[in-house]
DNA sequence: AACGAAGTCAACCGCTAATTT
DNA sequence: GAAATTAGCGGTTGACTTCGT
């Protein structure tokens, strides 16, 4: 589409929806060379896109084992609980849902779950503790992402330390189960931590 | 059938963190 | 150690679809 290529003018990148042709080029290139150096990928693969755009497209659609749509009740429940704990840290939440992307979860939350949650809140609640944690997470979520990363919730609680997210492949879900069990009688992060550690 | 409102979701933007030179 | 580059994140936007009147 919009393209300037006279060498002197600033190159105008494609924007908007990806075409099948672009998808194919990107997928082929990554299959051969791997998914790194996105800027290089964009130019060598003959894509008039910025590196960021290529990365996003790959991560959200072209990557193998991507699940799209049909979020199950179990997944939904997990998202709600994780959000309660982590706030808007979509990539962390997505990391615990195989085949799901942060973008998909973020969209799903914003379009479905946030409404659901606010409706729930309007209803009289028996558990006040649950309310408290929800509000705390939401409040944290409004902060800039990276700054929030180490001060989730108002308690002195480091989520990264707690879960050790660096241990990839740890999708054994034992920790999830632990958390979910604890969540049944939520009384605060500190207690969760002390009871697990 | 036509139209506007509301909902959904793919993609972009701006920023920070991490890595490389 | 500093500067430049790259990767990654969450927030936001805008095009498209669905729904209600």
TrEMBL record:
Could you list this entry's UniProt keywords, alphabetically sorted. DNA-binding, Nucleus, Repeat
UniProt keyword Repeat, yes or no:
yes
One matching Pfam family is: Myb_DNA-binding
Record has Ion transport as a keyword: no
Q: What is the lineage of its organism?
A: Eukaryota, Viridiplantae, Streptophyta, Embryophyta, Tracheophyta
Q: What is its main location?
A: nucleus
This protein's superkingdom? Answer: Eukaryota
Q: What SUPFAM superfamilies does the annotation carry?
A: Homeodomain-like
Protein name in UniProt: Myb-related protein 308-like
Q: Where is the composition biased (Low complexity)?
A: 126-143
State the Gene Ontology terms under molecular function. transcription cis-regulatory region binding
| One of the GO BP terms on file | cell differentiation
């Amino acid at each position: 589409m919009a393209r300037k290529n006279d060498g002197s003018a600033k190159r105008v990148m494609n924007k908007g929806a990806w075409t099948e042709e672009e998808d194919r080029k990107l997928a082929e290139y990554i299959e051969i060379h791997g998914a790194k150096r996105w800027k290089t990928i964009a130019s060598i693969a003959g894509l008039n896109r910025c590196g960021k755009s290529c990365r996003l497209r790959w991560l959200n659609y072209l990557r193998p084992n991507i699940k799209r749509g049909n979020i199950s009740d179990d997944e939904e429940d997990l998202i709600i609980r994780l959000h309660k704990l982590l706030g808007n840290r979509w990539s962390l939440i997505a990391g615990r849902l195989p085949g799901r992307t942060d973008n998909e979860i973020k969209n799903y939350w914003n379009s479905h779950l946030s409404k659901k949650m606010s409706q729930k809140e309007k209803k009289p609640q028996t558990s006040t503790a649950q309310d408290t944690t929800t509000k705390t997470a939401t409040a944290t979520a409004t902060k800039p992402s990276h700054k929030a990363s180490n001060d989730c919730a108002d308690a002195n609680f480091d989520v990264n330390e707690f879960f050790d997210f660096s241990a990839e492949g740890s999708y054994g879900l034992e920790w999830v189960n632990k958390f979910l069990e604890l969540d049944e009688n939520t009384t605060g992060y500190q207690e969760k931590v002390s009871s697990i550690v």
